[in-house]
């Protein structure tokens, strides 16, 4: 693992961040907000980290997935209440407030997408 700026991943992360902000602003309910947003957020995190470090794609993808799963499982223990942040809109937006199995599925599908794209870029790009 080495530090190295990758402009393509940085631009992709920035575009995904803008997309996430758009989703959070204009889609208050439904599939786009809850499921597609979760699918995109792991791709965003992967691209963000890949912007700054040269690392094995599989290791990074699994690390991002483990992080996403950890945040989701923290919702089971009501982490926002434990930290007295249950009324903080930003904390709710970032950490979420309710555990859903469907979120874990969305995260997993997002990471599978990342691995497929990385595989194609490395072997056919």
TrEMBL record:
Transmembrane stretches in the record are 7-25, 31-49, 61-80, 100-119
Name the domain of life: Bacteria
**Claim: Transferase is one of the keywords in the record:** no
Read off the InterPro entries from this record.
DUF2809
User: Which key words are in the record?
Assistant: Membrane, Transmembrane, Transmembrane helix
Keyword Membrane assigned to the entry: answer is: yes
Instruction: Give the protein's recorded name.
Output: DUF2809 domain-containing protein
Q: Which organism is it from?
A: Jejuia spongiicola
- Phylogenetic lineage: Bacteria, Pseudomonadati, Bacteroidota, Flavobacteriia, Flavobacteriales
């Amino acid at each position: 693992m080495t530090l190295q700026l990758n402009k393509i991943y940085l631009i992709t992360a920035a575009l995904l961040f803008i997309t996430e902000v758009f989703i959070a602003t204009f889609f208050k309910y439904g599939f786009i907000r809850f499921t597609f947003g979760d699918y995109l957020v792991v791709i965003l995190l992967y691209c963000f980290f890949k912007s700054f470090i040269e690392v094995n794609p599989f290791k990074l993808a699994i690390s991002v997935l483990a992080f996403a799963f950890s945040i989701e499982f923290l919702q089971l223990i009501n982490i926002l209440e434990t930290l007295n942040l249950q009324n903080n809109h930003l904390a709710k937006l970032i950490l979420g407030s309710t555990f859903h199995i469907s979120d874990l599925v969305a995260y997993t599908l997002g990471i599978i997408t990342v691995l497929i794209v990385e595989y194609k870029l490395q072997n056919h790009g």
